[in-house]
Amino acid sequence: MSDEEAQxxxxxxxxxxxxxxxxxxxxxxxxxLVKAHGLKGAIKLELxxxxxxxRFVPGATFTLQVPESSPWHGKKLTVREFKWMNSxxxxxxxxxxxxxxxxxxxxxxxxxxxxxEAVPTEDDAWFDHQLVGLDVVRDGVSVGRVVxxxxxxxxxxxxxxxxxxxxxxxxxxLVPFVKAIVPEVDVAGGRVVVTPPPGLFEELASDGEDx
Length: 211
Hints:
The protein is mainly β and 211 residues long. It is built from four helices and twelve strands, in the order ββαβββαβαββββββα. A six-stranded antiparallel beta barrel has the order 1-2-5-4-3-6. A six-stranded mixed β-sheet has the order 10-9-8-7-12-11.
């Protein structure tokens, strides 16, 4: 889970859908390509894994989340070399030979396929399928259920369907998946605890007061 606090509106690039994993698999987000580095195709990474040296070994292949207009849409990306430069993670990828090629991949999100029954090894990390269906609790009261997780470059969002809303309803709340707002995730207990800022659950608060 990211600790980033910024709330930004996702743009067209961030709305790009990732591919569907094979049967029996789920997908884990491990990084984002943030900036071209030098002239030989290197790209700086924003990491979402506690084991970058293990994830980004030569030959490792990633599914890409990029806009449909990207020349990389529908393709996979394979690591050629991974290194640290001035404490920043930098990677070279097959088929990316110069700065122009690297810039085509900026903002791309990298995913890996994992067994659906696997458990993430990183602290504060969960697969999407572990979060979907969890009860959402605020001030000790259930206010909804997680129906999906949306991933954007700035942060992840928990999409919560309000209690009492039908499956076809669009009565949903978008909650930034950051520690300050979602301080507790209890997969075994079947719940997440939220402490939203004023306004995020304003209508829910009003409903509770009316009761």
